[in-house]
Amino acid sequence: MKLTSIKLCNFRSFYGVTPEIILSGGDVLNTTIIHGNNGSGKTSLLNAFTWVLYEKFSAAFASGEQLVNKRAIAEAKNKQAVECWVEIGWEHEGKRYRVKRACRVYKNETDFEAGKTQLTMWVGGDDGKWYFPPQQPEDIINQILPASLHQYFFFDGERIEEIVRSDKKAEIAEATKIFLGVEVINRSIRHLGEAKKSLENELKAIGDSEIKQLLRQQEKIEREIESITKRETEIQQELEYQQTFKKETSNRLRELSAAKQLQERCQNLESQKEANKEEYKKTREALKKIISARGYTVLLSETTAQFRNIMNDLKQRGELTSGISREFVNDLLKTQRCICGAELHAGSHSHEHVKIWLDKAGSSAVEETAIRMSAQVDEIDKQATAFWEEVDREQARINQLRQSISQIESELDNIQERLRKDANEEISSLQKRLDEIENKVDELNREQGANQQQIAHFTTEIEALGKQIAKQKLNEERQALAQRRINATQDAIERLTEVRNRQEKQFRLQLEKRVQEIFMEISFTPYIPKISDKYELTLVETTAGIEAPVAASTGENQILSLSFIASIIDRVREWSEKREMLMLPDSSTFPIVMDSPFGSLDEISRRRIARTIPKLANQLIVLVTKTQWRGEVEEEMADRIGREYVLTYYSSKPDCEQDYIELGEERYPLVRQSPNEFEYTEVVEVQRDW
C-alpha cells in the first residue's frame, strides 16, 4: 500500500473541504512532513486515516463521537444535515484505489443527532475509469493491511511505547504472527478442522428446489438489469453532453491569447495520454495472448527432461538402436535371399545367421517416432525460452507506458494549476469550469463502472439460479465425494501443521535479529531486544552470562517500539521478495504515519531515528510541532522530503498569540487570529526550491 492523497470535509477542526494533500512516495523522496502546533489538528489528521480505513481512533483522540466540525454545525439551519467525510487514495500491486467514509449529523433546536457512517470504494481501471469493486471495501482493505495491524503503522509517537507494555504483549504476539504467516496457517488449520466437521455432518440428500421461488427471484433480477440498462443510456447521453461542453469551453480558453499556448499544449498532452492508454491496453492484451498461447511451455521442463532420460535409458539398454531395422531383416527371410545373393532356406547356416539380426535390430517405426518426438521436445524448450523473452519485452513496454502516462498527467496538472491561478479572471474561471466538467465526467464514469459491475453480478446470479432450477436430488456419488474430501482435509491439516512448525521458528529468529540490529543502530544502551517463542517483545541485559529483563525507560521503550515496526517492514519486504513466507497482507510495501514521534527522546536518539526510519520505511508521513522539527530532525530528514504542508490554526481567542515557522526562505503561519467566533484549521502546501 502506497498512500497517494487525503482530503477532508468538516472533519474535526478542518472546516469545509480541504485542498487535496498529495503524499510523497518515491524511492528516495519518500517522506511527507506536516507541521502544526499542538491543538492544530495533527492528531485529527492521523485519526482521519484510521477512521476512513478502519473506523478506529488512537488513544489520544478525545471525543471520537464528535467528528463533525462545530462551525459547520453552528452555521447549519434547523433540521439540516451536515456532512463530514474523509477520502484517501492509494496504489497497491499496480492498482489505484480511492475510499471515502462519510457521516452526517442532523441539527435540531437544542442539539444534533449523528447518523451512521458509510464507506465507499472505487478501483481505477486500465481505461482510466473508476469502478466499484466486486468485494466489500472492508475485505479489500483488510487483505492489503489488516485492521488488527493498523496501530503499528498509524500511531501517536508520544504513546508508541505502550505497545511493549505487559498488557499489550498478547497483541504484539498476534500481530507478529499475522506478518510472519503463522497466524494465516493457524487460521487455515482451524478452518480445515471446521470444514472436516461440516463434511462429516453433511446430509446424504438434498430436497427438491422451490422452482417457483427461484423463478420469481430470476424475474426480479431481470427487472433490475432492465432498470440499470436504462440508466446506462442516460449516463452515456450525459457523458456526450459533458464532452461537448468541455470541447466548447476548451475552445473558448484557446481563443484567449494569454492562454492559447498553454491550452494547445494541454490538448496535445491529452492526445498523447489517450494514445498511450490505447497502446497500454493493446500491450496488456498482447501479454494475455502470449501467456494463453505459450504459457504452458514453462510448465513442461520437468516432463521434457524426463523424456530425454527415458530415451537415453532405451539407447543404453539397446532397445532403441539405429542401423538395420527388423522390417528389413524380415523381408530378407521372407524372400529367402540375402543382399549378397546367398539362398536363405529354413534351417540353413545362412538363414540362421541372418535370423540372429532380428534380436539386434530395432523397429524403424519406433525409431522414426522417437526422432519425431525428440524434435518436438526440443521445440517446446525453445518456445519456453522465447516465451520468457516475449513476456519480459511486453512487461517492459507496459512499465514504460505507465511511466509515460504518469509524466503526462503530471505536466497536465502543472499547466492546469497555472491556468487556475492566472491573474486573468476569465482564464481562471474557464479552467475552473473545465475542472467541474472533469469532476462530473469522473462521477458519471464511476457510476457507469458500478452499473456494469452490478449487471455482471446480476447476470452471474441469473446463471446460478438457472443451475439451481435444473438441479436434481443428491445421489450416492455425493457421499463418496464427501468421504474423499474428508480424507484430503485431514491430509492438508497434517501438512500445514508441519509447515507452521518449521517456518515459525525460522522467521521468529530472523525477525529478532533484525530488531536487535536496528535497536543497536538507534540506541546507545547495551540492552538487547528479544522475541520469545510466544512472540513477546522484551528488552534484556547480560550480566555474568545471564540474561535479565530490563526495567526500560519511556524513551527506551519508544526506541524499542520503533525498532520493532521498522524491522517488521524490512523483514516482510525481504521475505516477500524471496517468496519465503505466506503472508496475509499481499504486499511488502507499507506506509508509516507518525504523530509527534520525537517528543520525549534525547537529541542523539532523535537524530538516529530521523536518519533510520526514512531508509527503512517504504513511505513516511510525519506530523510534527515546530520544536520537534528544528535541529537534528530537520537536518537528517531534509534530503528525504518529497511533500511538505503546514496546518494553520485560526484561534477564536481574542488575544491569541500568533506564531510562524520558517521553511526555506518563506514564513508560514502556524497560529492566526480567527476572523469570526469559530476556531478552525487550514492546510497550506509548502513551496520549496530544493
Structure in words:
Among the domains are: 2-145 and 615-685, 3-Layer(aba) Sandwich (Rossmann fold), CATH 3.40.50; 208-256 and 424-472. 54% of the residues lie in helices and 17% in strands. The chain has 690 residues and is an alpha+beta fold. It is built from 18 helices and 19 strands. The strands form three sheets. Strands 1, 2, 3, 5, 6, 7, 8 and 9 form an eight-stranded antiparallel beta sheet that branches. Strands 4, 10, 14, 15, 16, 17, 18 and 19 form an eight-stranded mixed beta sheet that branches. The longest helix is centred in the middle third of the chain and has 57 residues, at 364-420. The protein has helices at 42-54, 70-75, 137-144, 169-180, 182-200, 211-255, 257-294, 301-316, 326-335, 349-355, 357-360, 364-420, 425-469, 476-522, 554-578, 603-616, 626-629, 632-637, and strands spanning 2-11, 14-17, 21-22, 31-35, 81-92, 95-107, 112-114, 118-124, 130-131, 154-156, 528-531, 537-543, 546-549, 591-595, 619-624, 641-651, 659-663, 666-673, 680-685.
Q: Based on helices, strands and strand pairing, what is the structural class?
A: alpha+beta
- Rounded mean pLDDT score: 81
Uncertain segments of ≥5 residues (pLDDT<50)? 203-209, 472-476, 581-586
Strand share of the residues?
15-25%
Shape designation? globular
Please tally the helical runs, counting DSSP H or I stretches of 4 or more residues. Answer: 18
Q: Could you estimate the helical fraction of the residues in percent? A: 40-55%
CA radius of gyration = 35 Å
**Largest sheet, described in full?**
8 strands, antiparallel
CATH architecture of the domain at 2-145 and 615-685: 3-Layer(aba) Sandwich
- Give the beta-strand count: 19
The named CATH superfamily of the domain at 2-145 and 615-685: P-loop containing nucleotide triphosphate hydrolases
- Roughly how many Å apart are the termini? 27 Å
CATH class of the domain at 2-145 and 615-685: Alpha Beta
Per the CATH scheme, the topology name of the domain at 2-145 and 615-685 is Rossmann fold
Subunit structure: Heterodimer of SbcC and SbcD.
GO molecular function, one term: ATP hydrolysis activity
Family: Belongs to the SMC family. SbcC subfamily.
Protein name: Nuclease SbcCD subunit C
